[in-house]
Design brief:
13% helix, 30 strands, mainly beta, 382 residues, Cathepsin D, subunit A, domain 1, six-stranded mixed β-sheet, 8 helices, six-stranded mixed β-barrel
């Protein structure tokens, strides 16, 4: 496995801190290189479907796709003295968790683990927690400690310490844990998510964060807390109201190709999710798009496309709040090994929600504005 860089913080102004992220090799590519992809998908047939987060009673449960592909990873630390972990900054979930020394699963043996006894500021609640995914699950205990992101220190932050991680996606993934950035209604009952803690503890000048995801480069991606660095996008930010406060959910007016509406006629709902790599949509509409671009299925459930067609295939245009956001073929098709090209589209296995994952977010700088419950979009700089 490779290539997670470290996370540092750059203070650009009083109101903005920028956290560099590192893009790493996709898990799908790593499994394919080891000839493990086909067997993995047979053992975990729902790993390509939405992920269902089943938490304790009284916590909102919403579907979201499990991540099997590209990740953007940064480094945080927990405890005193700090213990470092590589995490996915995920707008599709709200909780923070990392592996712990109490975990005996294979996934924990290949990742860094938190040692409560080595932190003078750790507090245990003794409360059990559980997160279930389509391809596996995590169980553990809830604790609290100081969490450092760059030189922001969030005190008494609740987080999960895993005891079991029953998933090969966790075992083969090059991230240790997940740091959720969705609304607090998604969080474990009685806990405050990391971003909400930042705001409540007066660490930020503005109640928002933003993502810039680099294209085809390992370095250069950033997540920003407390402000927006305008050098990462062109033109003006276009604002979209959040339609439901849980995931970062918005209304899409329509989806079209060559000026013809091919999906979402009369509007539909979509989730803006940094923890999902692909563009996800309802079965019928995704299969219709795959037919339009002449994609062919493989034994692993992926779809391959003639690489020579990338330069001639039309954009997929998402019209959101009256503004068109084109996604070109060079984005919704990816090149694999031996000049084989794969679709970056996937179906949602019976669900009506669309998911605008990293395929979309690499094209558009995205601001998540909690103060006004809206999302800002603008073309990202190349």
């Amino acid at each position: 496995m490779k290539w997670i860089g470290f996370l540092s913080l750059v203070a650009l102004s009083e109101c903005l801190v920028t956290i560099p992220l590192t893009k790493i090799k996709s898990m799908r590519e790593s499994l394919r290189e080891r000839d493990l992809l086909s067997s993995y998908l047979q053992e975990h047939p729902y790993s390509q479907a939405y992920r269902f987060l089943h938490r304790q009673e009284g916590v909102t449960v919403e579907p979201m796709r499990s991540y099997l592909d590209l990740y953007y990873v940064g480094t945080i630390s927990i405890g005193t003295p700090p213990q470092e972990f590589k995490v996915i900054f995920d707008t599709g979930s709200a909780d923070l968790w990392v592996p712990s020394i109490y975990c005996s699963s294979p996934a924990c043996a290949t990742h860094r683990t938190f040692h409560p006894g080595k932190s003078s500021t750790f507090l245990s609640t003794g409360r059990p927690i559980s997160l279930h995914y389509g391809s596996g699950s995590m169980t553990g205990l809830l604790g609290s400690d100081n969490v450092r992101i760059g030189d922001l220190v969030v005190k008494y932050q609740a987080f999960g310490l895993s005891q079991t991680e029953s998933s090969k996606s966790f075992e083969y993934g090059v991230f240790d844990g997940i740091l959720g950035l969705s609304y607090p209604t998604m969080a474990l009952k009685g806990t405050t998510p990391v971003f909400d803690s930042m705001w409540k503890q007066g660490l930020l000048s503005e109640n928002l964060f933003a993502f810039y995801l680099s294209t085809n480069t390992e370095m250069g991606s950033v997540v920003m807390f407390g402000g927006v660095d305008h050098s990462y996008y062109t033109g003006e930010l276009k604002w979209v109201p959040v339609s439901r406060q849980g995931y970062w959910q918005i209304t899409v007016d329509s989806i079209s190709m060559n000026g013809k509406v091919i999906a979402c006629d009369g509007s539909c709902q979509a989730i803006v999710d940094t923890g999902t790599s692909l563009l996800i949509g309802p079965n019928y509409h995704i299969f219709n798009i795959l037919k339009i671009i002449n994609a062919r299925p493989t034994s692993t459930g992926e779809y391959i496309i003639n690489c020579n067609t990338i330069r001639v295939l039309p954009d997929i245009v998402f019209t959101i709040n009256g503004v068109g956001y084109p996604v070109p073929a060079s984005a919704y098709i990816r090149r694999g090994q031996s000049n084989v090209c794969y679709s970056n589209l996937d179906d949602s296995f019976g669900h009506s929600l669309w998911v605008l994952g990293d395929v979309f977010l690499r094209l558009y700088f995205t601001v998540f504005d909690r103060a006004n419950n809206r999302i800002g979009l603008a073309p990202a700089v190349a």
